Amino acid sequence: MTDAAAPAPRRIRMTVIGPILALVLLVVAGALMNPNFLGWDNVTNVLARSAFIGIIAVGMTFVITAGGLDLSVGSMAAFIAGLMILVMNSLVPTMGVGIPVILVGMAVALLAGLAAGLLNGILITRLGIEAFIVTLGSMGIYRSLVTWLADGGTLSLDFNLRSLYQPVYYGGIAGITWPIIVFAVVVVLGEIVMRSTAFGRHCAAIGSNEQVAKYSSVRVDRVRLTTYAALGLLVGIATIMYVPRLGSASSATGMLWELEAIAAVIIGGTVLKGGFGRVWGTVIGVLILTLIGNLLNLTDFVSPYLNGAIQGAIIVLAVVLQRDGKARA
Amino acid sequence: MKHFVSGLAIAAALAAPALAQDGETKVIGVSIPAATHGWAGGMNYFAQAAVDRLEETYPQLDFVLATASDPAKQVNDIEDMVATRNIDALVVLPFESEPLTGPVQNVKASGAWITVVDRGLSQDGIEDLYVAGDNPGFGRVAGEYMAQAMPDGGKIVVLRGIPTTIDNERVEGFQAAIEGKNIEVLGMEHGDWNRDKAFTVMQDFLSKYPQIDAVWASDDDMAVGVLGAIEAAGRDDIKFVLGGAGMKEMVKRTMDGDAMIPANVTYPPAMIATAIELTAVGMVSPAPVSGDFIIGSVLVTPDNAETYYYPDSPF
Which N-terminal stretch is annotated as signal sequence (chain B) (predicted)? Predict the structure, then answer.
């Protein structure tokens, strides 16, 4: 930033610094309250844990920036996880326990995610139904489907297959586990697409004014459809990372992930009404959400009954911090 | 000839009610929550199995089985059973006590037999038969096992369920049982009977406490998450994890002598079958079945695990 442009950046500053400030405050508070907080193990735990919601939230950033919403991602993840486990288990007798089975499982997850995202997108763009309603509907459908697939119980991955697949969650390069690496790659790609491609700018244009975007020859429906399809694909990727962790899926899998992803996007400074999106902000949002839970577990500061209240207060505070700058401007 | 035929018809028509009286069909309504988590899935399975078995055994009994995904749906189900099937008995596992009390009371007023399972109604005296698990006992058995498994004392962490009366009763029972036994509870957090939540909570317990001797996961779904976290952290200070409720995969591991899962405490979802069977006996025989039937929580060890292993159940 140059000195000449000083007044303008000062106005933006708070919205940029707000989420970072909240994150730094949390980290400092954590380090003061528990010496293990900044330990390597805890840091990698928190990052790996953030990866599921984080990967999904990057996709959600694009959907929300383009003025949409997707409530179905949590149950979609549960359904894909269930489907993946069923397919892999059924292939064990014919293909044996080996890497090919896992690759097929991964392909199933990606295809199912893409298909589910496309379905949401087509219903929203081609039939012109409200995104809220379409995805509320598909949220219920996928949640029921996974319960049905699991016969009300839990789907568990074949034990030997699980041992083979486990390194995808627990293993990694130089102590950095795969979920963290994949999360980082998704974030970097997302940031590039949002900032430096026509697609990213089109999302923002549609979100801020659909009519104007249409007259400016932006192919509104196609861009929208792509955001939902990409989100579906990312849900598939997140599921690929999720399944090896505990090797199971049930109707409780992915519960409320959609709200956590949406909250992370908003905390990060993306506008809920659309028109402006920030991928790196979303990452900060996800980290803030995960850190709150982590901190509450690491300290005996408050009664566990109040965890939800603390979480809620910090979410609102993080948003207030960044809105503060705008209010003064 | 024509008159003769119609005469026969009238005679038959007159005889019909008398015949029906002898083998009068009685209808038993069964209303339970839908299979939204592992334990409920098992409960649904055992309810269906009991209904199938009893319909075969007693031709004079008819069953209506309805599963509800929320309390309002369950109230509708019960109203429909009374209105359209005129049920003689109702076996109900209430979703929540408060909203179901009024509707069940109305069924009682219609003269039907009422069997309440697991969760009591908020008003006494409505049910004829009450079948339930023993929550304080569930905690007590777990606590006694902990004390006995670690005679020299030890440090444990506890994962609790969803904050409810059930969870409170279990934890109180547990704490009473370990009192004065030199067992130090380092920390307690809610894992909400959920694998993922339990995984996260356990990871944080592991970061926070360098030495943990044992874990009371208090539920087998949570035990799965706890075991995942311990395995990932590569910690070998934890000697065992005590779950609960008797999930088949966990009972199997106990049966096979897995040192990490040396025991289990039952809270059988099959209690719904007990309730349906007792109600059916009350309908078809003069045997008295009214009162309270509390199913004790039993300690499962490698010696008796086979008795509690149901490979066909989803739970």
Answer: 1-20
Contacts of A41 in chain B (CB under 8 A): 206-207, 233
Contact B199 A246 (CB under 8 A): yes
pLDDT in tens, A212-255: 999 988 899 999 999 999 999 999 999 999 999 888 888 888 88
Between β-strands B299-300 and B264-265, what pairing exists: parallel, antiparallel or unpaired? antiparallel
Which CATH entry fits the domain spanning B24-133+269-296: 2.40.240.20, 2.60.120.10, 3.40.50.2300, 3.40.50.12280?
3.40.50.2300
Contacts 24+ apart (CB under 8 A), B109-115: B110/B82, B112/B82, B112/B87, B112/B88, B113/B88, B113/B89, B113/B279, B113/B282, B113/B283, B114/B89, B114/B90, B115/B89, B115/B90, B115/B91, B115/B275, B115/B276, B115/B278, B115/B279
Element (H, E) at B184: strand B183-190
Of A34, A156, A304, the CB nearest to B208: A34
How many CA atoms lie within 13 Å of A102's alpha carbon, on the beta-carbon side? 18
Q: Say whether B189 and A293 touch across the interface (CB within 8 A).
A: no
Residue boundaries of the structural domains of chain B: 24-133+269-296, 135-265
Q: How far is B3 from chain A (nearest CA, A)?
A: 59
What spatial distance separates the first Cα and last Cα of chain B, rounded to whole Å?
Answer: 65
Chain A residue with the nearest C-alpha to that of B194: A252
Q: What pLDDT, on the 0 to 100 scale, is given for residue B22?
A: 44
Q: With contacts defined as CB-CB under 8 Å, which chain A residues touch B249?
A: 156
Are B24-133+269-296 and B135-265 the same fold in CATH? yes
**A209 touches B: beta carbon within 8 Å:** no
All residues of chain A having their beta carbon less than 8 Å from the beta carbon of residue B217 are none
pLDDT (tens digit, 9 = 90+) per residue, B92-104?
A: 998 877 888 888 9
Question: Going by C-beta distance under 8 Å and a sequence separation of 6 or more, which residues neighbour residue B71?
Answer: B94, B95, B96, B99, B100
Structural class in CATH, domain B135-265:
alpha beta
Do B36 and A245 count as a contact with CB atoms less than 8 A apart?
Answer: no
Contact status of A50 with chain B (Cβ, < 8 Å): no
Residue B101, min C-alpha distance to chain A (Å): 26
User: What residue ranges of chain A have pLDDT lower than 70?
Assistant: 1-14, 322-329
What is the SS3 assignment for B299? strand
> Over 70: is that where the pLDDT of B10 sits?
no
Beta bridge partners of B266: B245
Interchain pair B207, A49: CB under 8 A? no
- Kindly state whether A304 is in contact with chain B, defined as any CB-CB distance less than 8 angstroms: yes
Q: What is the pTM of this model?
A: 0.76
Q: Which domains does chain A have, with CATH numbers?
A: 23-323 (1.10.3470)
**B42, B102 Cβ separation under 8 angstroms:** no
